[in-house]
Queue: 4 jobs
Job 1
Amino acid sequence: MPVTDIKQDLENLTLTVTADFAAPVERVWQIYADPRQLERVWGPPTYPATFVDHDLRPGGRVTYFMTGPNGEKFAGYWLVTAVDEPRSFAFDDGFADIDFNPNPDLPVAKNTYSFTPHGGGARATYLATYASAEALQQVLDMGMVEGATAAINQIDELLAS
């Protein structure tokens, strides 16, 4: 399993997931740069993702929806704020309605995904920062840790294919 550590820090308003992959940084980067590859790992296995827009450059927008086991759709968006290919990218990650309009009732995370060489492969650090402890607790209560872990743990299979 790639996920090696998860830290929830309500004081600093962060959720950090660390994962190690048996692939070079450039290969792991490709997963996030290619929406068709990203679809295979973004949602948990029972909530596969479909990416509609994918503009991974500063100022770009990424939109997607995940489809639940009963056909229900859950949409989200990224507003890309920084890209340092293949080392990192940052984005505001929010929930949306099915037309990709931001849902103001749900938290927005400021995310930074970074990739560094580690042990002959790559280490990914997924850092999400929230505006308040309540916002972080809300996504924790929604199952963010379990969902992110299940999604990230799918990456090994994609890397092996």
Job 2
Amino acid sequence: MTKDETAKILAILNAYYPEVAADPLIMINAWHKIFADHNYAVVEQAAMNFAAADSREYPKFPVPGQIKAQVNLLSKTGDSPEELWNIVYKAICNSGYRSQEEFEKLPVCCQTWLGGASALKDLGMTDKEIVNTVTRGQFLKTIGEIKERQEAQEQLPDEVRQALNGALQIGE
């Protein structure tokens, strides 16, 4: 999103929340830092959704995090832990001779949980009763945290993400 588009978003919000007493240039720069990597149409819709649903008794100009929450709501994939388990279980069942291929088809959060194609193959050779009870329970208990961490990292600007990856590699 460009700075001009950021200014348009702030103008839309200002139409609904006119009591803003901040320097417009500072606001544009601050909001642009947060939304620079986002699609204008998505942020615009998120701002409109926020204003339309805002039923606070004393509404005031939203902070960027409130709009970002709407953006995240609009872009959610809808993969519940149970839906993700069904995808993983199908991959486990098909992993006999194609574990690497099945692993690569999985969502990134599922790949992270498994750790590698060999784990998928090992689960394919495990008793189905254990996979359907113990492994499933472990998956459902931990996949939400993995997804949250992954989504938080995806929201970081590229330069921050690269800096964090560099810091993690140095610490290893």
Job 3
Amino acid sequence: MKKMTLKALFISAAVAMSANVQAEDVYSQCLADAETVIATAKKDGSTAAKAVEQKTTVEQCYAEVDKIEAKYGDKTVAVNPSSVMTPEDRLKWSKLMDAIDAKKYKGTRYLMAAYYR
């Protein structure tokens, strides 16, 4: 019986770690997509940046934002969520919001890259 319990424990730990890696992977891909769009806009202009194939959708990136905000529950109601976050979560949240702006071809970094190329 102990062997079965230990096997189940290790399997559940492996599944939890792979789920965490996959979630981090979506976060990283959102940031990578944004950097690719910005770099392309800087090099070749906005038309080329809009033609870049992105690995993640804006909805997937918003789902990652929701996961970060979910940690704080009702504290974020009627306030800017970053005002109640830890500095680490605030940094991840702000990078993700900037990435979403770039993926939608908006935001300061994208517009500056497209305009001042």
Job 4
Amino acid sequence: MPEMPEVESLVRFLDVRLRERVIAQVELAAFSALKTYDPPLAALYGLSVDSVSRHGKFIDIDAQGVHVIFHLARAGWLRWRDELTDKPLRPGKGPMALRVRLDDDSGFDLTEAGTQRKLAVYVTTDPQAVPGIATLGPDPLAEDFTSETLAGLLTEAGRAQLKGVLKDQRVIAGIGNAYSDEILHAAKLSPFRAANSLTEDEQGVLFAAIKSELADAIKRSEGLAAKDLKSEKKSGMRVHGRTGEKCPVCGDTIAEVSFADSSLQYCPTCQTGGKKLADRRLSRLLK
């Protein structure tokens, strides 16, 4: 699943290519992806792009006050084309969801792999009208996201587990399963620690890890083409997706806890005092 660093990199990639360009056409192949009907997709035709920005994991293309906003969900991705084919899209066929064509025939496709269709596209004049955006928590890389901000969020979360708190978009916008693993490893904190149990020093370490892990991930992606972001993300992970491998910090074996539809990875030595966490495959504590 693309998380905030990849989404931020896509925003920067698109902003260079879309700003001040004119949208010539938007084709819809997966009707389930479009969550709005007013304004219609045709309202974007002939409009020039003012900017590309981000709300958490949502990408927002602002074309003279009409916004096309999309969330890539778990299996969605963006494929840029310097020259799009003239062949029209075939609705319901393959992974294709949406195509945006510019006036010079360059543009991008939104695709979604697998059978679950969760990629979402919105056309609106008010980004706050998008349900997922309206409920977002603060952006962790914003200047006003301070250590005091984090301390308040942890206190408010109470006994909720750190892993779940970091993943909850209503608490902090943009962090997902992969980077929450990396952040907790960098901070040397158990994913099952209660949010309100951290000492002031531990809160400071967690705050620094959030800022540095996300900023470093964005820096590693700087200048990469959209097609290369997935592989860069994977190569930069120390614990996430590396079950059974050696921890690069202490050499212990990276362990995993599985859930119904996801898993987390951690280092027992670095994060849990050498203890293995119970497998909570059927647990509903983390979603």
